[in-house]
Amino acid sequence: MDGSGKRNKGARGEREAAALLSDELGFIVKRNIDQTREGGSDITIGKWQLEVKRQEKISIDKWFKQATDACKSNQTPAVMFRRSNQEWKVCINLKDFCYLVRETFDD
């Protein structure tokens, strides 16, 4: 796939991820359209900085570094990714996962 094909596939993946997140969260989630030029993540939701990948070759460490590099000190990195014909997955740090699990027991 050439450069423009990869960019188009990436943008489609970002739009798909934003639409799914909007449906699941109940509010509109938008892509950071200027992120390539200005830096930052593909999608920002509150403190979460999401790097979105729709690729066949999984490179979690590389993608997570990209998400982490896009974060400021008070932000949290995450990678949202999927291969063709598979469901979306999210990768986060263990400490963030543990925080989320503890939150479910506070109810």
Explain the overall architecture.
By secondary structure, the chain is of the alpha+beta class. Helix content is 46%, strand content 19%. The chain has a four-stranded mixed beta sheet with strand order 1-2-3-4. It is globular and about 50 Å long. The model has no long low-confidence stretch (mean pLDDT 89).
The number of distinct helices, counting runs of at least 4 residues, comes to 4
Shape, principal axes of CA atoms: globular
Derived from helix and strand composition plus strand pairing, the structural class reads alpha+beta
How many strand units?
Answer: 4
Helix content: 40-55%
Write a brief caption for the model:
The protein has 107 residues and is an alpha+beta fold. Helix content is 46%, strand content 19%. It has helices at residues 3-25, 35-38, 60-69, 94-105; strands spanning 43-45, 48-54, 76-82, 89-91.
